[in-house]
Structures are given as structure tokens and as C-alpha cells.
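Hey, quick one: can you model this chain's 3D structure?
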Amino acid sequence: MALFSAENKRAFMEPLNLNNPVLIQVLGICSALAVTSKLEPSIVMGLSVTVITAFSNIIISLLRKTIPNRIRIIIQLVVVAALVTIVSMVLKAFAYDVSVQLSVYVGLIITNCILMGRLEAFAMTNAPWPSLLDGIGSGLGYAWILVAVGAIRELFGNGTLLDIRIFPEGYPNNGMMTMPAMAMIILGCIIWAHRSVVKIED
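Sure thing. Here's the predicted structure for all 202 residues.
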């Protein structure tokens, strides 16, 4: 099978738009609300989930024929937990300030519905290469939502992006934009706009 066959392209592209884990499946909402008060932690969280989803998908796909059905969830959790631990240690070593901002939410990636959903729905029944593409696509589909929400909240909340001033000095900081409730409203607006443009088949 060609590396970039139609099926493989679909495995990568659909989670970015037509089958987006946040916009369509409404998964991973908690972290999307919790870590998006600024753009930097949104980017780091999105990339962390992408890396973990990609590698966990490919590992489970490689092991899928040897995993007893009755303990498959336990094996999946062990694989994800190991990857989350590695990512958490890397963040603490090279991006400590962002790691502090993300707090417990990096550890909670272990229970992220997106990861477990892709492992069960795709990696357990597909070859490693399509599983890798699906993992990357699902992670990036989640990540771009976090980046969009984080950019909007930081820009209109503080007048900055990545702590670089965009709005002129004197812009009154909007405290409401940093509140979790506003993240929910922004996310709801993005979901509404997406579903208004993209026709989802029942």
C-alpha cells in the first residue's frame, strides 16, 4: 500500500477538519478550557498531545496482535502513561516556566478522551503507518483549536501574543478573557462557525 494513498491521506486529514476531535467529537474539552489563557501554553499543550497521540498510536498498532483483549485498556494506559511521563520530564528540563503554567494538565493527558478514542477506534485495528498518520492528524486537530482559543484570549485579554505587545500601550486588559467561562464561549463560537461552514453527514 502506498505511503500516501487516499486512505492514508484521509486518516491524516479528517481529524484536522471533518472529524476534528474537539469540533465534531467534542473530546478534550477540559484541557482546551484550562490551558488556553495564553498562547504559549496552548502551543506546548497541543504539541505534547500530538507527540503522545502519534507515538502511542504507532506503539499500540505494533503490539495490537499480541495484546489480549481483556487487558487491552490497561496496556493502552501503560503506554500512554510512559509517554506522558517522558514528555513531562522534557518540559520540566527545557521549558520549566511553561511546565508550571500547565500544572497538572500534562499528567492528565493520560486520561484524555482523544488518545484513548484513537487507540481503540484506529490503532487497534490498523497498521502502524496509518495509525501514525491518524495520531498526528488527531493531535494537530486538537492543537489548532487550543492555539486559536489561546491566541484570542491572550490578544484581547492582555493585548499581546507570546508576550509580544500587539495592541498599543494603554490597551485596557480585559480580565474576562482570562476566565474559563470565556474559553467556553470562544470555543462554542468556533464550533458554531465550523459547523455553519462544514456540512457534517449524519
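One thing worth noting: The chain has a mean pLDDT of 88.
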